[in-house]
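Q: My labmate handed me this sequence with no annotations at all. I'd like to see what the chain might look like in three dimensions before we decide whether it's worth expressing. Could you predict it?
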Amino acid sequence: MDRTQGQADPAQQPARVVTLTAGDFTLTVNPVDGSEIEPTHRPGGEPAGIPAKRTPAARASRAAAARPPVPPGAPAGTRPLLGREEEHERLVRLLARGRSVRLTGPPGSGRTALLDSVAEACADMAPDGVVRLSAHGHQQPAELLHALYATVYEAPAERPDRAGLLARVREIGAVVLLDDLDMGGPALDELLRATPECAYLLAATPDTRAPSDDSHLEEVFLGGLARADCVALLEAGTGRALTEAETAWAGDLRFASEGLPLRFVQAAALLRQRDELNRTDPDDEDEEPGVFEERPRDTVFVPLPTLAEGAAPAELLASRVSESARAALRIACALGGELPHHAHLPALVGDTHADTAVAELIDCGLLSPVGPRYRLAAGVARQLEEIGYGDTTAEEARTAARHYAWWTGHTSVSPERIASEADAVLAALAGADVVAAVLLARTAAPAFAASLHWEAWERVLRSGAEAARKAGEVAEQAYFHHELGVLALCEGRLDRARAELEASIGLRGALADKRGTVAGRRALALVTDREAAGVQVSPPLRLAPPAASPAPAALPPAGPAAGLPAGPAPRGFSPPAGVAPVSTVKPAPAPLAAALEPQDAEAVTTVVPAVAPAGSVAPVTLAEVFEDAFPLNPEPAPAPRPLPEPRPKPLSGRKPLLLAAAGALTVVVLGTVVALAMSGEEQTPPPAQGPGVSTIPTTEESQTQPSAPGTSGNDPSPAPEASSPEAQAPGTTPTPRRSSSHKPSPTPQSSSPVGPTPPASSPADPTPTPTKPPEPTAPTTPPAPTPTATTGAPASTTTP
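A: Here is what I predict for the chain of 800 residues:
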C-alpha cells in the first residue's frame, strides 16, 4: 500500500468508534476523548448468555485467515517432511489418547513443519477440531486462553472477565497446537489446568523453562536429520541429483550444523544460485552471437560454498538476491526480526515491485512463518547485523513508525488487520523517536483495544505515555493515562485504575479539557462504586488456582511469639529448615504479591507471575492481604518508656507494686540521696513512701548510674520527702530536675495544668512534676524493706 495513495488528514477522517463488552462493563473505544466505560444494563438483570461455538466450516475459514499470507511472485517449492516419521506417528498416537505433549527442538529443527503435518492427521480427532495458536510474544497464560476462546466461540465483540473465561474454556474439547512456546513452570500448569478437555502439542526450544513435575507432559525431543535425509532434502530443493563433491559437502555440512533442516533448506538455495551463475557468463550478456556462433555456456565456474558459508549462509544468500529483498532485510533487522506485510514493502522500500521480495526471501530460507506473519529465520538477524545490515536501524525504524502511524489511523483498515501486525508495530514504536512514537501510539492504541488484543494495547499505551512525557505533550499524556485507567478497571485492578484516572484528570484539568475531564470522572466513579461494593481484586493476566482447592474463611491470627500464624503457613511461604522465623510481619500471599507491586511499561511481557501449585489455597482479597501484613491489633514492641494511661485503673498484685516502686525510685535516686546510695552496703534503703510503694533498685541500675554532679559518695544527705500524693500515684512518670551545684537552678515546669508542685526539702532536691492527675488506688500491704546497695537510677521504666 503506497503511502501517497488515499492519504488524508487524520483530523478530517471520521473517528473509528467501537463498542465492546468487557465482563460487566460496556466499553466504547473513543479515539478522540478517550474510551468510555459504563456498567452493562441487561433486561431483568439476567447474566450474559454463553455464545455459540463455531461450526467446522467457520473454524476452517478462521484457520485459513490465521495462516501467513501467500506473497506475490514465484511460488516456493513444496518442502517434504523427511526423517520425522517416527516422531509424527508418536505425536498423533499420544494426542489421540488425550495426552499433552511437549515437543522440544532447537531453532531450525522443523518444529513448525511437523506441527502442520500433525494438524492434518488430527483434524477429526476432537469435537472442537484443531486449534493452531502462536505463543510468540505472549508470556501470560490468560492471553492464550482469550485467543483460544475467540477461536472456538463466536463472540467477536466480547472479552469475558476471568471467571467467565475460565468457565467457558473449560468446556472446550480440542487439539491445541501451540507453537513458539515461551513459558513453563507454574504458568504452563495454569494453562493446562484451565482446559482439562484439551490435548496440547507444545513446541518449544531447549532454553524454554521446563514444565513442573505435576504437569504430566510427555516429552518428545526433535534432533537433527540423518545423512541420507539431508542429501534427499538437498536434492528436493535443487530439483536434481547431487554430484559426488556436493554429496561430500553435504556430509560435512551435516556434521557442522548437527543436521538441522533449516541449514539444508538454505544450502539448497545456495546450490540453486550457484547453478544459475554457472549457466550464464555475465560478461557476454550484452553481446549477440553470430549466425554460426553459439552463446558461450558454462564459461564461469562458481565453486561450492565453503563449510563456514554453509553453516552461516545469510551473508552469501543476501548478496545474491535483489535490491528490494536486501532493503526488506534491513527493515526486518531494524524491527527486531519482524518483517512487515508484503503490502507495506512498496511504501517502505520505495519500489512498486518490492512485494515480490517476500517470496524471494522465503525461497532462500531467510524467513520463517510465525503465526499469520513472517520473521527472519533463526540466526539470520545476527548474521546480517555482523555484515552491516544493522547500521541503519534508527532510520529504518523511524520510517516504519511514521508509515504505521498513517496506516493504523486510516479508517479503511480493520482493527483485526492491525492486530495481526502487532509485533511489527510495537517494534517500530520501540525504535522510533519520541514524536513518531507518540503519533503511532495514539493511532494504534484504539485499534488494539477494538481488536481485543489487550496485551498489545497495554504495551502501546505505556510506551506512548513515556514518549509523551519526554516530548512534553501533556494532552497526549493525559489520554494515555485515561486509557490505562480504563484498561485496569476492565481487568479488576482498582488501585491501578484509580491512580491512572486521577493522573489523567489532573492533566486534563490543567488543560481545561472539560470533555476529557468528564469522561475521566465517570470512570473514576465506577472505581469508587466497585471499591464500595467490595469487589474482589483479581490480578491481570493471572489465573486462579484449581477449583478443587478449598478457600479459607479467614487468615489465622498471628502467633504471639514469632509473628507466624497458628495454623498452616500462607501459600508461597516456607521458612528454611532449622531457621526460626523472627519477623512479626508475614509475607503477602503469592497470587497477590505481583498485584501489589507497581507495574512499569515492561512488566506485562518480561515478568512471569508466580502461580501456586496444585493443592494450594485460593487467593485472598486485598483487604485480607493488608490485614495480614499490617494487622489492626499488632503486638506492641517493648518501648523504653511506656506512655501513661489516660485513666489508670485500680491495680493489684505484682504489677502495681513494681510500678509504684519504679516511681518512688525515680524520686529517690535523682535527689541528694545519690551520694548516700553510693556508699554501698552500709546504707539502708529509704523507707517506703506509702502503701504499695517499694524503693528497691535493681543491681544493673545500681551499677550503671553515676553520681550526681556536686555530690560525694559519703555525703549523708537526707532522702527527699516522697509522701505527697503525686509521688505515690502509680502508673505516672514524674519529670525530675537535676542540679549541678548546691545552688538552686530554675527548671521549666511541666505543661500539665493539674496540681501544684510540692516544695523541695533542700536547694538541690529535685521536685517531681506530675504529668497526670492522681487518682485513688486500692491500698496494698507494703513489703518489708530489704537492705540493698543503691547506686543510681534506672535507665527506664518498663512494664513487664
